[in-house]
Structure formats: C-alpha cells, structure tokens
Write a structure and sequence with these properties.
The structure holds 2 protein chains of 2 kinds.
Chain A: E1 11-13, E2 19-20, E3 33-34, E4 37-43, H1 50-54, E5 61-67
Antiparallel strand pairs in A: 1-2, 1-3, 4-5
Chain B: E1 10-16, H1 21-34, E2 40-45, E3 52-57, H2 61-68, E4 74-77, H3 84-91, E5 105-108, E6 117-124, E7 129-134, E8 142-146, E9 150-154
Antiparallel strand pairs in B: 1-3, 1-4, 2-3, 5-6, 5-9, 6-7, 7-8
Classes of the chains: A mainly beta, B alpha+beta.
Pfam families (chain B): KOW (PF00467), Spt5-NGN (PF03439)
Function (chain B): Stimulates transcription elongation.
Organism (chain B): Methanofollis tationis
C-alpha cells in the first residue's frame, strides 16, 4: 500500500490573520499561530480591492477570515 | 492610461468542485502570478459558501472565464456579478455559538458522541465552546464541545 501523503497543514497568525507556512508569522513576528482557521482570502492588489479596504488590509498576501 | 484610485471592481462567483475551494483560490493566484495581465485584486473563499469562490477583479467576465481555464477544479463563472455589499457579511464571520442558548436541544455532529442528541447547559462565547448533557444518558455527564460541532434541533421556547 502506498504511504499516505501527509498534507501540509498551513497555520494562521492569531494577531494579523495571515496564513503562514513556517513556525512564525513573517509580518508581525508572532509565533502565536493556529491550525484552526476558516475562510480563505488572497489579497493581490490591496489598493484597488474593496474587500481589502473593508478588512483593513493594506498588504498583499494570504489571510484567514477566522482564526480560533 | 490614467488610473484612478477609485476604480470600480466587479465580484464574480466561480463554481468549483466540492471541497476544492482553497485549491481553486491557490490555483487562481498561481494563474495570476504566471500571467500578471489579469487584473484580479482579491480572491475569497468563505467557509459558509460551499462550492464557490469569489473573485474580485477589474476585468470583465470574459477575462475571468479565460483565467479559470487553466485552474484545476474551477468549473464555470456564474453569469452576472455580485456586489461588495452582498459579500461583506462573509468577511465578518459570526461566532459559532450564535443562535445557541441554554436549554437548546442540539445534535452532536462530530467526535465520539456523533449523532447523539444533547441539551445545552452552558455557553462559553469567548472560547466558542458549549457544555452539553446527553439527552439519553442515565446520569448527567457534562461534555464540552466546540460550537461548530453541533447542529441546533430545537431552540426550546420560540
């Protein structure tokens, strides 16, 4: 039987809601990460995005809508 | 061409294969990095909206159809566009314990007691946890579960 492929679990920063792959948030330096998050948002152009304005996001990147 | 700050964006819904919403968001992002001529400003996949992702863009619908051709699991662009006002409620997720009160009868939908009915005894709003007692158990044993692991059956007095 083929070994089960373990899916890489991405984590979300609890303070800035950024979705990160490492052990610390690159933006705010926080290590307060959570695997339990929901809702996925990628902001590409925050200057022209109404969604980013509403979320008060001014940096492009991947975000979680809800982090527990 | 003169670009103003207040450019009008459109929001389109893209139908996806079930449970592939995050993969489609990543796929769309990847397609944009490959071809930056697509003016997409944000891609959103709310947890409540199953089978669709929302694309906020400066492009017309035909360009988005072109964009998702290269994205696996993305199926079609839903005809017609939606507005920011219509999707803004997805951006502020409501707490998992909203609509649950003490005395509410719920069914556990995950964990070892899956399928059991229980009555809500206590609610912890900050942790989004609820404490329930199983309906059919002889002795009352309090069980603390996550707010999204239950389905409300009966709210008691309406």
């Amino acid at each position: 039987m083929a070994p089960a492929r373990k899916k890489k679990q991405m984590k979300a920063c609890q303070s800035c809601h950024k979705v990160v792959e490492g052990e610390a948030c690159m933006t705010c330096g926080s290590t307060n990460l959570s695997e339990d998050w929901a809702g996925y948002l990628i902001v590409i152009d925050p200057r022209h995005s109404g969604i980013a304005k509403q979320m008060n996001i001014d940096m492009p990147g991947r975000y979680a809508l809800k982090v527990r | 061409m003169h670009m103003t700050e207040e450019t009008e964006t459109h929001i389109f819904a893209v139908k996806t294969t079930a449970k592939q919403e995050r993969a489609v968001v990543d796929g769309i992002y990847h397609a944009i990095t490959v071809d930056p001529s697509f003016k997409v400003t944000a891609v959103l996949s709310p947890d409540e909206l199953k089978g669709y992702v929302l694309v906020e863009t400066l492009e017309p619908v035909a360009r988005i159809e072109e964009l998702i051709e290269s994205v696996p699991s993305a199926r079609t662009v839903v005809p017609g566009e939606t507005s920011l006002a219509e999707v803004s409620h997805y951006l502020v997720p409501k707490p998992a314990v909203a609509g649950i009160d003490e005395g509410t009868i719920v069914e556990l939908i995950a964990g070892p007691f899956k399928g059991e009915k229980a009555i809500v005894k206590r609610i912890d709003t900050s942790k989004e946890e609820i404490t329930v007692e199983l309906y059919e158990s002889m002795v009352p044993i309090p069980i603390t579960v996550r707010g999204d692991n239950v389905r409300v059956i009966d709210r008691g007095e309406t």
